[in-house]
Automatic annotation (TrEMBL):
Belongs to the UPF0102 family. It comes from the Bacteria. Pfam families: UPF0102. It comes from Candidatus Magasanikbacteria bacterium RIFOXYD2_FULL_36_9. Gene3D superfamilies: 3.40.1350.10. This is Uncharacterized protein.
Amino acid sequence: MDSGRGKKIGKWGEDQACAFLIRHGFFIKERNYFSTVGELDIVAQKGGDYYFVEVKTRADGELASDLAITPAKKYKMEKTVQKYCYQRSVPETGIVLAGLLVVYNRLSQKAVFHYAIFS
């Protein structure tokens, strides 16, 4: 897949993920936070908890239809979250690292969501 198409699909997936989170009572604090340590796709809040969400977008039938969050990626997310919390004066309590897999169903032309918490 070329990078232009990949970015377009990735943005679509993140848009779908934000809509999903909002429907489930989350407030989107920030999207695509970048630091020298790494990137966070979505920072959301629900109640007093902050959710740092890694979004993966796939088409149904793709071989890699999982979250593909490796231990190295999780470690990088943890370090990026620490930097985010420091920069934004967010207490490091009530922190949740999560992954959201957005699968595009070609037949229904809708998104199907798979959510996992890994902290």
